[in-house]
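Crash report, auto-generated. Payload:
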Amino acid sequence: MPPATELRHTPLTAAHEAADARLVDFSGFLMPVQYQGILEEARHVRANVGLFDLCHMGRVRFTGPQREQAAQFLVHVNVSKLKLGAIRYSMFCREDGTTMDDVLVYRDADEIFFCINAGNRDRDVAWMKEVAARFDVQFEDLSDELAMIAIQGRHSTTTLAPLCTGGPDEAVRKPTPDGPPGIDGPGPGALKYYSFYRGTVCDTPAMISRTGYTGEDGYEIYFAASEAMRVWNALLESGAACGAMPIGLGARDTLRLEAGMALYGHELDDTTNPVEAGVIVKPIKHPHDFSGRAAIEATVASGPTRRLVGFTTDSPRVPRQGYSLHAGDEQVGSVCSGSPSPMLDTHIGTAYVTTGHHEAGGRLEMDIRGKRHPVTIVDLPFYKRDY
Amino acid sequence: MSSPNDLKYTESHEWIKVDGDTVTVGITAHAAESLSDLVYLDLPSVGDGVNVGEGFGEIESVKAVSDLKSPVKGEVVEVHDGLEDDLTTINTDPYGGGWMIKVKLAGDLPSGLLDAAAYDKLVAEAS
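Recovered output after restart:
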């Protein structure tokens, strides 16, 4: 790791140091990989609630008259059909359908907001600026001025709602809010999953989003970076009675893998396309062009030659990125990610395998330094919450 | 935290305890703590040869696989049976119950082994 002084800090780095977290280089940021232990933290989020510093991620937006057209060129979802306050998962693709990044798209009344990956931020920004130049839009990179914290777990509403004002508009509001209300309104518990509203957290204007990367119910909140430490501490205090504690990126990776969610650099990279990854599986119905559309539709029509699958293994060895998968003498796949799974009590992994070997229940062998270990293909996700 | 004075150490964070021409090998408290969540251990068999700086096994944590490097040259005469089923011992008692193998030395101890003070200095400088 480069000297810690050369790594970028987030507005919360001092809190992680004070909590004696183990800090590592993640995409050029000094980030907490663990506090207590990866598996213990993962279990804690499943049972209680955890807080995640996500300030390293990229936060960007288009404003201006053609913001929706510009955004539409970048993603496969029908941007202008999204309800105000809706969020969708998509990918930035090249013309050949390969993936530059996976993103969340937020449609607001006067902007289209994106949350992008830290590791792809520079090239995403360059690409978005290039696209912005073709439209009557303004592009802004708000990554440094906005903080981002995730609150994840069954007690996330109990933790967050007492600090919030406002509530979602009807279009993205649940008939019956989950958990306690906010200070002066229905609060975040009234948000539908994958939607957001603008209110306040600790009296600071905030975008409150019911999203996450753990498979649990939860929120991701965006607000002024200068308030990050105050909000972080308030969340820890607010959630203390239901077990709120900070969670590192190590547990986050195990949680997202159990939830079957892709991580750029593992399930997605410069060679994969959204059809192989299982994000786009049917012909696209809307008429709008977007980067990669023709190539993606051709892959949908022909069927992908390889597919992203989940697998479990009874081997004591943890699957690791790059291990090969075999059917007899033939190599038919390559591992993307692996981890022990606290919920399944076995090791789990994802892999790209040749079409035909992708059906759940199929048995393959994973090669680790010349030794073969049996694996079983299973449907994703590995874990679904039961509340 | 000070490492035990009666052991010698490698820069790759193994320890040895010398008893005549037999040495016991394990990994240091610092190594165990850095690895944290241990999930798998692969040790050699009795009778296997080991060489200085070469792998004698593998240890795996949630996040990574690491080679265990032999501090000495010789033949494995005893392997800690059952350790792979109780990996937390490596964290809780790295210099005692966490021992991994015993090796009958072929020739002298290699030069370059560290005493406890030198090893502690190495760890302090790295963190």
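Post-recovery validation: Helices of chain B lie at 29-35, 88-92, 116-126.
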